[in-house]
Structure formats: C-alpha cells, structure tokens
Amino acid sequence: MFTASVTKCSTTVSSGVFSIFSIVIVIVAAPCLVLCSTSDELRALLEFKKGIHHDPLGKITNSWNHTAISTTADLDSCPNSFFGVICDVNSNAVAAIVLDRLNLTGELKFSTLLGLKMLKNLSLVGNSFTGRLVPQLGTMSSLQHLDLSNNQFIGSIPDRIHDLWNLQYLNLSNNKFSGGYPSGIRNLQQLRVLDMHSNGLWGDVGVFFSELRNVEFVDLSCNSFSGELPGNPLNVSTLGNTVRHLNLSRNLLGGKFLRNDTLALFRSLEVLDLGGNRIGGELPSFGAMLNLKVLRLHNNQLFGEVPTELLATSIPLQELDLSGNGFSGSINAINSTTLEILDLSSNRLTGNFPELSSQSGLTTLRMSNNSLEGSLPSEWLSFSRLSKIDLSANSFVGPIPPTLFSLNLRHLNLSGNHFSGAIPFPEAKVGELLVEPIFAPLEFLDLSDNSLT
User: Fewest CB atoms within 10 A around its CB: which of 54, 145, 247, 353?
Assistant: First the structure.
C-alpha cells in the first residue's frame, strides 16, 4: 500500500497519513503459452539460491532444496514447497517469488531467473541484497509486479526495462541505483505505480514526465532530478489525467517550477510533495486542483503572500506545509473545514493570530519563527481536535488563554514570545506540580522565554 508520507531519505519504510493506491497481482489461471519445463524452472530457482549468502531465519535454506521434493515426479512440478514460491495451478509454472523482509544477504544474479517465463511477481523487499539489474531482465515480459525496494542494489537501471510491457508496479526505492532514468519508459502502458525514491538517479524531470503514461503514483524523492514540469499539454495530457500522488521532494528542482499553466494540467492530483528543493517565485493559484488533499512545499525559496484559496473551503486540503520559505504578509483567516495539519513556520509572516473557523478540523497548527503579534483568542474550546500547537519565536503578548489547557493537547510550545501574567494552572493542582502531570495528556510543554509569573 502506498501512502502520502513525509520522505526522510532513509532506508526504513515510512508510515503513512492516508492510503493513495494499493495493487494486488492476481495470478490468473491460464494455459502455458510457451514450452514450459518445470525441471528447468527448478534448476533456475536453485541457481538463484546460490546468490543468497546468509539466511538467518532459514526459510530458504530449509526449503529450497531437493529434499523438499518428495518424488521424482515432483521434479517435473512447480516446487510449491519452496518458501515464497507461488505456482500457477494451470500452467504448473512459477508465477511468483515473494521473499520480503527475511534479512537475507547476498549478491543476486538476476540472469538466473530468465528461465522463469511465466513469472508475474518478483518481490524481494527489505533484505540486504546487492547486485545489478541485467539488461536481459527485459525479456521477462510476463512480469506485472517488480519490487526490489529497501536493499543495496547498485548500478544503472537498464533501458531494456521498457520491454516489460505487462508491468503494473515498479518499486526500486531505497537502493543505490545511479545514473539517468531508463529511456523508452513510455512503452510501459500498464504501469500504475512508479517508486524510485532514495537512490542516486538524475535527469530532467520534465523530459522524464513526458515519457510517462497512465501512472497514478510517482515517487522520485531523494534523488538528483532537476528541471521543471512540462507546460505543453501534449506532453502531459495522459499523465495529468491519471497521476494522483506525485513526490519530487529532496531533489535539485529550482527556478519557477510552479506555474498556473502547468498545475492546471494535473487535475487529478491528490498529493503533491515538492519539499526540500530550490523552487522560487510566488505561489500560483491552486483553484483548478479540486482534488488536492496534501500539499508540501517546505524548505524551498518561495515568497510572496500565501494564496487565500489554500486556507479556504474551495480546495479539500487536509495537509498544508509551507514551512521554511520566505512567505510574508498576514494570514487573516483560516476558513478551511478540511485542513488537519497546517505548518507555516519559519517564514516572514506578520499581523495578528488568524481567525479560525468554528468548524475547523485542525489537529496540528505550527506557526513558529515568524513575526506574528497581538494576543491569542480567549476561546479555544471549539477546536477540540487540536493536539499540537507551536507558536514559538513570535511576538505574541498578553495572558495565555486558560481554555488552551482544556484541549486534549499533546504538544504545546509558546516559548520565545512576550506572554505575561500567571501560568493558568488549575488551582486545585498547583501543589501537585512536581508529583503528577497537571496538564494531561500533554507530553511536551514549553513556556520558556516569556514574562510569566
């Protein structure tokens, strides 16, 4: 399952905010269309096993051997007693190899798998395999699902991968692949998921996108891609209609990457993550992106005012992260009823604390490191879903509203302001300050660098 998650450029699988796409490869019962020799397939599997040097759980060591095959007749059958091997019931051929998260190590020879003519699913997720993809991998045209994520594979991605014309799911993320992206990827008309994040890949992202067709999930984060999205409708018309999740965070994108004419082409986008690049300029209107739920533009070089439609009800945003930029001006109101996470920290915002909609669904509000001033609203009981508030390093004045502590907050940071007056401890518990939490369920509270008594 793929999710809208914050990319950290690590080799760990990140947890998600909400699901965006899931894919299941169903092994369809079909006659073998080639001359299948299952004894040849058995030899191929045993050759593949030779590349596995360490099997701490013993799953492969104990089952991928001749002793697991009881009779001579079984030598001519698909070895379904091999752990992780799935056989097609009609063709009697190997249809899937799934060896996920077994802590296996070794240098794999993908050429040993070329004899598995009916292989549809190859999944080796979360091991420590090394090795290179061979160009001959393109001859395995039955492959629909290829997941090599979270390993240590090296080298370039061969251009012949575009011959895998049945491929629907391709995940090469969290490896050590390098070089340019494979050419001719436009041939993969069935591809729906493309995940190559956290590698050493480079190239012009605009040219690459002009190659993609019908893809719904794209994650190229934590690489060295540059350039900008193509503005020509002819180049992105198919992709613009289908892509729902686009993550290009932590690359080398720069300049005025975000333009009205380009964004208008991506009408189906639900998740757009461009954080951690060098994108500059003012934000365009996002009014045409009526399906956008997550927008992350943190740590770029954007400036100007925050577009009002991003904080209004016209776009169903659930998460908006504009932190670490140069946005200026004031935020008068946050009228969105769908926003759950809002991060405007580390900008140049001025003015008073914005008015919040009484129907606000905010759970996280971060506006730290700005130049906001004035006093906070006295009434907070309407915002019962809030669990994290960070307003530190501003110029707020006046008392801290007692109703803030009536919320189920887990994180509250008001440090580095000009708040004054008494800390609004519940009177009955002042004497219990040192022996039990008085603001449960607070896990983090920072009121330092104020003028509190």
Answer: 54
